[in-house]
Design goal:
alpha+beta; 5-stranded antiparallel beta sheet; 4-stranded antiparallel beta sheet; 2 helices; 9 strands
Length: 159
């Protein structure tokens, strides 16, 4: 019975599937555009600036290094841009949470290395939030959430 119904209504079923797939693609595209507009995607175009931010964690712990790559994809240079890092202070320590980038020249990549130390390896993991700030607005130009890996136990000398 099910097979015969599917044979008779194959065209309608295919048309419904195609329509639903198109709606899904449209809603996904709209959500991605909203992410980019809010500065939460890999590239921000808020306030007339276009900036890319990529972050990568290096190390096995308890000392990590977050390598932040920033690229100004716009046509105008940006001046005196602060880069702020924040995290759970009970789990991680960032000795220098604020970096100032004096100038971001268009189409040039800049690398900032952020040292992070895990203070309690038994407490699990958390994330580090990175904000590229704008001096003329309370909204960041772009932000990233870096999920930290599980930290290895610190090596101790047993002499």
């Amino acid at each position: 019975e099910q097979t015969s119904r599917e044979r008779e209504q194959a065209i309608d079923m295919h048309r419904t599937f195609q329509r639903d797939l198109c709606k899904l693609r449209l809603s996904t595209a709209r959500a991605y555009v909203n992410l980019l507009g809010a500065g939460h995607g890999p590239m921000s175009s808020s306030g007339g600036t276009q900036v890319r931010l990529n972050a990568q964690v290096l190390g096995m712990g308890p000392q990590f290094k977050i390598v932040v790559r920033i690229q100004n994809a716009g046509i105008h240079a940006l001046y005196d841009i602060p880069l702020m890092c924040t995290t759970n202070p009970n789990l991680y320590r960032i000795p220098r949470p604020c970096f100032y980038l004096p100038i971001l020249v268009p189409q040039q990549s800049y690398i900032v290395e952020v040292p992070v130390t895990c203070t309690d390896a038994m407490a699990g993991t958390d994330s580090v939030r990175i904000f590229l700030c704008n001096r003329s607005s309370n909204m960041p130009i772009i932000s990233a959430i870096v999920n930290m890996p599980i930290s290895e136990q610190p090596l101790t000398d047993n002499y």
